[in-house]
From TrEMBL:
Keywords: Membrane, Transmembrane, Transmembrane helix. The keyword Transmembrane helix applies. It comes from the Eukaryota. It comes from Penicillium cinerascens. The keyword Magnesium does not apply. GO terms for cellular component: fungal-type vacuole membrane. The chain crosses the membrane at residues 40-63. InterPro entries: DUF3712 (IPR022185), Tag1 (IPR046368). This is Uncharacterized protein. SUPFAM superfamilies: LEA14-like. Pfam families: DUF3712.
Amino acid sequence: MSKSDLENSSDSDAPSNANAVAAAKPTVWQRFKASLKRWWWCYVIGVSIVVLVVVLPIVYVGIPHIANSYINKYQFDYEGLAITNPRPTAFHIKQSTKLKIGGGFSGSGTLTPFNASCKVQSSDEEFAVFTMPTIDFGKGANLDIDQDLELSCVDCMSQLAVEAVTNHSFGVLITGTPYLKYEALPTAHLNIHMLMHMNGYNFTGEFTEEVYFLNENGAFNVTSVDLLDPPVDGFNVNATMTIRNPTPFIIEMGHITFNLSMGGSDLGYIDLPNLMLQQDVSSSVVLGNLDISMLVHEALFGDGELGEVTIDVKGHSCDYNGLEIPYFAAAIKAIQASTTLDLLNYASSLQNF
């Protein structure tokens, strides 16, 4: 064989050898399997780190955060909440209501009992602690409260009561640290910081864009007036009054008194022997010791329309079973307002005067 033939033979075999080398090169998957077989313990450590860094914070931090946020923003329904049997340092609260569960909590779980601390929104001082019962939830939940609420700070409760009657709205801050058990997830420790907003009576009319309570349409109405001659037990007026309750609460107030005046002159006083504020509209007996001559003179010869009189109302006292209720008394004493009545609506009662 000549030298040229050997060179040609060598050149013709080169492509086939290159193809053989290329065919023998491992694929990416083969290289990964080989790496996994050799460095498996590194991959185990890597996956563990991912679980620790990503998954566990979601379970132990994310879920409690979501639950806290949901509870703190929950719009609580106060419908039917009753405050009864007031005492100088305590009262009874009762409510049975259904809670709507949402916020991504589609499964079932349990919120453990906890001591809920109550504070006035504008203060950091606690005025009471009540025990929240166990709440088992699924698509919904039931909340049943039936307990006495002992007051640790009567002055704080008085401040709250004053805000309720003088402002258009007021708030109570509820804090607590219950535990949440949700489905198969680990038990979560919650930190509740919930501000509960409620409508007030706005007796003082401090919000200039709104009419204050006594002059709101349908808020206050004297439905009947009877003159007592001679007076009975020191009262010469027996009337019936309706008052609208802007809150959804039922509140047993007890015996309340107001001083009345007209144009700076003393008109007398009225007693509400047993005021119970019901939901929506309440009716109450009103007994009064009033200067009827002043009323009639103002109605006939006053500066207003014929028959109309403007009466200034100042809260004086509140007691229950003969004991002053300091927080309700503070609220009543904070009431200083005026209302206009048309005595022509009660002409049949006044005509024989």
